[in-house]
Amino acid sequence: MSNRAEKLPKKFISRLEGQLSEEDIIAFKEAFDEFAPVSYRTNPFKPAEIDFSDITPVPWCDEAHYIAKRPSFAKDPLIFAGAYYVQEASSMFLWQALKQHAPLEKDIKVLDLCAAPGGKSTLINSLITEKSLLVANEVVDKRATPLIDNLVRWGNPNTIVTANYSDSFTQLREYFDVIVADAPCSGEGMFRKDPKTIDAWSPMLINSCSDVQKEIVDYIPKSLKAGGLFIYSTCTFSPQENEERLEQILDSEEFEPLEIDLDPSWGITKIEVEKNGVKATGYRFIFHKTTGEGLFLTAFIKKGEPSRHQKFSVSPKKMKQVFMLRKRESEEMRKWLENGNDFDFYEEEDEIYAIPKNLVQDFKMLFVTQTVRHQGIKMGRLNKKNNQLIPDHELAVSNIIASNIPSTEVEYRDAIDYLKKQDMSIKTIQGVKGWALIKFKGLVLGWVKVLPNRLNNYYPTEHRLVKNV
Ligand SMILES: C[S@@+](CC[C@H](N)C(=O)[O-])C[C@H]1O[C@@H](n2cnc3c(N)ncnc32)[C@H](O)[C@@H]1O
């Protein structure tokens, strides 16, 4: 047995011995001794020249690659610009499930129920149309911050971040076209990548995760449209969290199971479960067979004919309580956007947010029914004296900012100094006064203010690069 596999809990190994053949157990332990592969997924809205050497495609996700040797991501300005997301490859199998079964050509409403830190949310956001809506929900408050940061870097306004338990969405009866529940789990699939998960593991953890997952799954049918897609996933191997959920879903008689087409070279194992005479398939990624960490994913479609009408209503009085920016100030906001007429603006505690016009009613409805942590793109604050915008970092890195805003391209060293909030070698931008954007390889890093003899660095302190580069 390898050294690393020796650290695996005995109870885990003995259970796995019941799940896998003797040959597989040996291969599993050998693979456990290898390093977890490193992979990243590019942002289709921010194409850039990413120069990692020795990359190979992740076969089940068009926008992703493995990297032979882990680079120092923290020293790459492109990651700050939102050009890519470092994501474990197996998790990107959601891409296949959505490509094969979600109506991605339509404008849809998607709920990512367990969303932080945002790997699956950014993937979903890459696939849906710009008129679609992504509700990224994270109930654990402190985990909502990295989720918001990652969606902000991705740059699109059609997202809203909520912080609710799954029962809260049941009031939005049959509202969503797609629900993804990447449930909290015992994390056995992360044992290799993150040894801390080994220490946290116990049979009791499996029991408690299984209870939470059961509850999450129970609530799904109420908020999913008939004909809607439900994807359940975990990053663990335990049958209590995977096979039992398949049984639960079948037992509810609310769903029809879906198959996902696979290429045999991907090394994905099909897990079949039968309940009440119906068979359903789960797809398992395991170290010794698939190039990635552990994952379990299954897909279902909700039975029934989709209703033509929304099945719930929110009182107009409540909807009117959501304050939208007045016309004159909205016009000032639109000047900062490439397609300003496609947006309306919401104000909260003096901060102004751009919200796609076609989603205003949806955003309002979510404001009054859910706990909302973030919405659309933060534009900034209005300077009450001159009625001009003090633009926010979110606007700078968004995909909706006007292309005529002054900008300057910087070299690597200046990009790093900018991200550290230090002085750059450039001291001015020819012909520019006031707000301007700093770009690296064509992508925006953030704002500077051009004064007569210096540049003021407006990179947000809380995001600044602290590594010694
Ligand atoms: C596996 S992680 C999600 C990873 C995320 N989907 C991604 O790809 O980046 C599960 C998430 O569920 C959240 N969670 C914990 N308890 C929950 C509950 N009762 N209902 C919904 N989500 C919960 C956790 O805080 C955690 O962020």
TrEMBL record:
One Pfam family named in its UniProt record:
Methyltr_RsmF_N
GO MF term (any one):
RNA binding
Xref: InterPro entries: Methyltr_RsmF_N, MeTrfase_RsmB-F_NOP2_cat, MeTrfase_RsmB-F_NOP2_dom, Nol1_Nop2_Fmu_2, RCMT, SAM-dependent_MTases_sf
Write out the similarity annotation: Belongs to the class I-like SAM-binding methyltransferase superfamily. RsmB/NOP family.
Where along the sequence do coiled-coil regions lie? none
Q: Which residues bind S-adenosyl-L-methionine?
A: C114, A115, A116, P117, G118, G119, K120, E138, D182
PANTHER family annotated for this entry? 28S RRNA (CYTOSINE(4447)-C(5))-METHYLTRANSFERASE-RELATED, NOP2 YEAST -RELATED NOL1/NOP2/FMU SUN DOMAIN-CONTAINING
Protein name from the UniProt record: SAM-dependent MTase RsmB/NOP-type domain-containing protein
The UniProt entry's GO biological process terms, in alphabetical order, are:
RNA methylation
Q: Write out the catalytic residues in the record.
A: C235
Xref: CDD domains:
AdoMet_MTases (cd02440)
* Taxonomic superkingdom: Bacteria
List the keywords (alphabetical).
Answer: Cytoplasm, Methyltransferase, RNA-binding, S-adenosyl-L-methionine, Transferase
Organism for this UniProt entry: Flammeovirga pectinis
Q: Which residues form the SAM-dependent MTase RsmB/NOP-type domain?
A: 1-303
Indicate yes or no for the key word Zinc.
no
